[in-house]
Amino acid sequence: xxxxxxxxxxxxxxxxxxxxxxxxxxxxxxxxxxxxxxxxxxxxxxxxxxxxxxxxxxxxxxxxxxxxxxxxxxxxxxxxxxxxxxxxxxxxxxxxxxxxxxxxxxxxxxxxxxxxxxxxxxxxxxxxxxxxxxxxxxxxxxxxxxxxxxxxxxxxxxxxxxxxxxxxxxxxxxxxxxxxxxxxxxxxxxxxxxxxxxxxxxxxxxxxxxxxxxxxxxxxxxxxxxxxxxxxxxxxxxxxxxxxxxxxxxxxxxxxxxxxxxxxxxxxxxxxxxxxxxxxxxxxxxxxx
Amino acid sequence: xxxxxxxxxxxxxxxxxxxxxxxxxxxxxxxxxxxxxxxxxxxxxxxxxxxxxxxxxxxxxxxxxxxxxxxxxxxxxxxxxxxxxxxxxxxxxxxxxxxxxxxxxxxxxxxxxxxxxxxxxxxxxxxxxxxxxxxxxxxxxxxxxxxxxxxxxxxxxxxxxxxxxxxxxxxxxxxxxxxxxxxxxxxxxxxxxxxxxxxxxxxxxxxxxxxxxxxxxxxxxxxxxxxxxxxxxxxxxxxxxxxxxxxxxxxxxxxxxxxxxxxxxxxxxxxxxxxxxxxxxxxxxxxxxxxxxxxxxxxxxxxxxxxxxxxxxxxxxxxxxxxxxxxxxxxxxx
Lengths: 289, 334
Hints:
The structure holds 2 protein chains of 2 kinds.
Chain A: H1 5-36, H2 43-61, H3 63-89, H4 94-116, E1 132-135, E2 138-141, H5 142-164, H6 166-176, H7 178-183, H8 188-210, H9 220-235, H10 240-260, H11 265-279
Antiparallel strand pairs in A: 1-2
Chain B: H1 6-25, H2 28-54, H3 61-79, H4 83-105, H5 110-130, H6 158-181, H7 183-193, H8 195-200, H9 205-231, H10 241-254, H11 260-279, H12 283-296, H13 301-322
């Protein structure tokens, strides 16, 4: 089995699909951290919220309504969080931020339980994306291919915005040196706000996309949080390149590890993280030298 | 450096007498809660030493406690070593493991330190979760308690076990104060306030951090060995990062860098948890809101707030007595 080319293609696609899901989550988190020096542990809860919104909206108006409106709704929650809590916590140390957002995880966990109950919800894959597709010599579920394509599209769009447009230049300047950027007349506060909203929307999108694959449960946010943090710490905080590299490394190690060395798989990724932190304490591609 | 103030002595005496009163008067359920508080108090003392006095905010102390619990359980049930030796083994192994973690993480700061310790904690968690030798996700049972029949104490009795844990907590508190007052503890405070200055003075900074982290890990390992004996059953959930997060919450609710505060926090947290979960299944929501409120208020937890108020009162009295305003006295070392 292990010598079959189809097997490797299949696993590579699985790895890529996991990577793209993590990329959607980690890019928001990492840019928020790079720009605002804010550690948002509640990012995973926003992802869970996205899945719940998508499940509820899909029940009303079909999958695509959930797909398009869930990110908007999550961005709305993000605006509430930003104006209520995060704006005031901006200048605090990392520990205060970790604790406040840890408290937020508790709060949002129980709020989802209150609104949606403890039972797992499920969403149907839309008719358009059902079934399997022959791709590179293997039969692969269309919906998973859709996730890969979506991740690559978002990646391309973000790379274009961050690298080629004026607002991207402003964001990069803000990550690099926010005081200097403010002196040059960039409204850094508003930039923070916009980036935070986009990050929340992407987390919501990731939740909406993941909902048909996984069952929607209150603790799905906690489960995804640790992989997301590993991705951004391996990749280095604040950079698009870091988020991409971290997601790919995580996806490949996790998928191939589970197939080739099942006993070691779960330890492997943490060991890798420890090695990266020992050799390069700030990750592989940090935004600041 | 850590100092005892009149307020700290008062609160310590109050806490000790409340615990003794509870230990002698409570029924079975009350004794279980008391033991839970005492064991959590040891863990948060260990965390306060590194986080409050060394600036090393660790998210692996829950996992360290789990390592202690698993070492005790494995040594006493599978290997068949006497419980007393198994306890020493648990303390030694957890201490050694956390010394290594401290040494590796000593170069990282701030959020990277938090993440690095989180990684090590999760590594232990997933290893224990997957390994069939450790019972996997079924956990391990059949654990026995320490045999103290030589001095006529039967630890299988809840009351004796609670008193035993109280005595150990007293010893742990004393040891923590000694550590913080020793040369090592003073170096640690120096490192927290200005690492470069200490390095320039010729101190091997990573050694100080690793040594203190190792000592703190020994306390966490002891707490774990006692936790295993308390519940007589252990599961990988003990090592999960949320346990470490909760320990950090307790330290913050009590008052970081005060040693006494985390004890207050442990008592408040466990009682709050039991009271709330009797009323509602959504007790996490309440704890979360309280946590956010405490951190946003910028007070250093319950005890830190009391100390600040107490300090302000002394200032006022001094100002009244001398007729001029005194500079505000800083009561905490953190």
